[in-house]
Amino acid sequence: MKIVAVDPFYLRMSEITTAADGTQDTLLVRIRTDAGLEGWGECDASPLVSIAVYCCPMSHGNIINIHESLLGETLDKPEDVLRLSNKVLRNGLDIQHIQHAYSGAEIALWDLIGKKLEEPVYQILAEMTETQSKPYPKLPYASVLFGDTPESIYQIAVGLCEQGYQAAKFGWGPMGKHGEENDIALVRAAREGLGSDAQVMIDAGVVWGADYDTAYNRANAFAEFSPTWLEEPLSPDAINAYKALTDKKPRVPIAAGEGSSTYRMAEDIIVNGGVNFIQIDTGRIGGIMPSFQVRKLAERHGIQYVNHTFKSHLSLAAALHVFATNLDFNLLEYPAANSELSQSLVKQPFQIDPDGLVRVKERPGLGVDVDTEAIRPFLVPVKIGVGSDTVFVQSSL
Amino acid sequence: MKIVAVDPFYLRMSEITTAADGTQDTLLVRIRTDAGLEGWGECDASPLVSIAVYCCPMSHGNIINIHESLLGETLDKPEDVLRLSNKVLRNGLDIQHIQHAYSGAEIALWDLIGKKLEEPVYQILAEMTETQSKPYPKLPYASVLFGDTPESIYQIAVGLCEQGYQAAKFGWGPMGKHGEENDIALVRAAREGLGSDAQVMIDAGVVWGADYDTAYNRANAFAEFSPTWLEEPLSPDAINAYKALTDKKPRVPIAAGEGSSTYRMAEDIIVNGGVNFIQIDTGRIGGIMPSFQVRKLAERHGIQYVNHTFKSHLSLAAALHVFATNLDFNLLEYPAANSELSQSLVKQPFQIDPDGLVRVKERPGLGVDVDTEAIRPFLVPVKIGVGSDTVFVQSSL
């Protein structure tokens, strides 16, 4: 089949705050073929900057937009996705933002291939790589932001328990901003609210920059509350500081990687940074295949792969296909503080089954359908003019 | 002084081809202060994608545009540039394209500080870092693209000799696309045209991807023509392949680094890739300070720093301030196949002095003035609407 349309859509809530809540807006990418099929993907990236990568005028042979690279191309088999990814990334060699923007399209291509072959994406990946194709359920951890005070955090944690979560991650907000005593109080509140049986994860939201000593001290101070990990204590690029931190063997494992915009960045923080958990956002790193390659690298390095997902369940679907077939990689970031936009985005959100686990959908492609009626009110049409040319007009949803 | 305006300008030639010629378009950034001063910088990046980073609506606290981060800020001393860079990069943590876009603004901030302090930028950098401040002249190497045939390359090389160049780099085009014999013929033609006294550099334009064996074989095959380096034989991200290549100690030194969009990427290809020359584009890596930090890293590692510049002499000025004070880093990439746009962009282009060398300008700031009259015909006004808001309208040049 031939690709006949590649359309990005910018959706957002009416009010946007500075809270580190990625569900306040989103960029969806829809790809249509002449076989009447359509695939969807979601980027965890700036919608406007990403749209520009779909329509920017050519600067030379190394700055060619994604729309031009994909339109009219053939898509019949999984290998075509790899070929098109190579083409897009080569044509966009000098566009720094190419991976963030392309992620949505790459995911949409896998959705399309799955629909054409009538197979779930995880199964196609297993066949391509000749690995076992049995999917395993995952333990969802509720991913929420810290409240401003220990009291509010405790209440949030109690609420998550009542909803049946057996694991929860608290992040950003006040962490790291008011000294050690306060930081410890935040973690204590989370642990006490969740109870001793649940898993608790702490996300420091890059707050200590390159200061690995403070990160080390906090990790050890948090150890009495037995968090599963301390996440992003340092900046994504501070690889030498990560190495210094992990070399000191803090009493809590270190997680990072959501800032990986390329496979190499993930490899760098694994191999040279020494992290214990690698967290990959399929909507940033260039889509499903580079995420899958990081999963494979994590397997070889004996560390744990986890998804980073703070968008809708369309992103969650894409994330899950990447590592559904690995029994040991059993944790799933599950956004639990969703906007109305992200909650209504797919028709088949992932439910938590009675055993407390989440399972990949046994349906073709990603396995979820975008609810275009529900999200239409959130569409903000974009229009871009360059000189006398209109280089982007909004397609209808 | 306070920053009162931050304006990007998209300029381009009327015709754009796929040739790897970065002078076909450009993005300039102008910053004005309430003291009546203005500074200028240039990005080597997609103009439209970069403009989007100056105006994208906020997604959350990690996606805030550059304009909002800079407008109204105080700029009085060199440390303010560092503070503002930290703010911009932190606010743009989740915008992959932040460095490409910010480079122009960062350079403009240095230009402003230099004008305010009435000092050239290289001198301010030397004072900040307490290093010696004597500038040294550089040997410009003409940077041109390979012709399609050995004959045309020979003619280009002869022409460069006649213009007085003592060094020239040939890149991209047919290199690596038609087998070893042809590749060798291209290099032979360049050498024969330049004569035996000139330095010749070969730029393979990432053509061998991750295939370090071919890169190794070509480097050795080219050795008889004594090139100063073989540049970018592999993809910017192929760090393990660079390591495999440099570990084999090819008979020609390996150069790379223009793809470094962050300081860490440059550090990675130096420390883990083992390159012999590190080539940094000040208009991509986030501006003058991260480039200067790479220069310092190169000094510590005993490898050679070289600018990557394929834009106007505004970029050349910014590039030169970064390493003017290092005697050993004596080569300067000097674009010699310029478009009319890039040729007319500054009022004081860098001339090659009678001794064949190029010197940094002993004037405040970058030392060159943008010729707004000359470039106005190349301006393509950009207009961006998001929903009912116009988020970008073109300021006048």
Describe it.
Two copies of one chain form a homodimer. Chain A is an alpha/beta fold and 397 residues long. Helices cover 37% and strands 18% of the residues of chain A. Chain A is built from 14 helices and 13 strands. In chain A, the strands form three sheets. Chain A has an eight-stranded parallel sheet. Chain A has a three-stranded antiparallel sheet with strand order 1-2-3. A two-stranded antiparallel sheet of chain A has the order 12-13. In chain A, helix 9 links the parallel strand 7 and strand 8. The two termini of chain A are 22 Å apart. The mean pLDDT of chain A is 97.
Helix segment count of chain A? 14
Secondary structure: number of strands of chain A: 13
- Percentage of residues assigned to helices of chain A: 25-40%
Tell me the β content of chain A: 15-25%
Q: Roughly how many Å is the radius of gyration of chain A? A: 21 Å
- Summarize the main sheet of chain A: 8 strands, parallel
* Widest beta sheet: strand line-up of chain A: 10-9-8-7-6-5-4-11
Q: State the end-to-end distance of chain A.
A: 22 Å
Based on secondary structure, the structural category of chain A is alpha/beta
- Largest binding interface between chains: A-B, 59 and 59 residues
Q: Give me the strand/helix succession of chain A.
A: EEEHHHHHEHEHEHEHEHEHEHEHHEE
Write the layout of secondary structure elements.
Two copies of one chain form a homodimer.
Chain A lengths: L2 E10 L12 E9 L4 E6 L3 H9 L10 H5 L7 H14 L6 H20 L3 H8 L10 E7 L4 H13 L4 E5 L8 H15 L4 E5 L8 H11 L7 E2 L7 H9 L6 E3 L6 H9 L5 E4 L7 H14 L2 E4 L5 H11 L7 E5 L4 H5 L27 H4 L6 E5 L2 E5 L4
Parallel strand pairs in A: 4-5, 4-11, 5-6, 6-7, 7-8, 8-9, 9-10
Antiparallel strand pairs in A: 1-2, 2-3, 12-13
Helix pairs in contact in A: 1-4, 3-4, 5-12, 6-7, 8-9, 10-11, 11-12
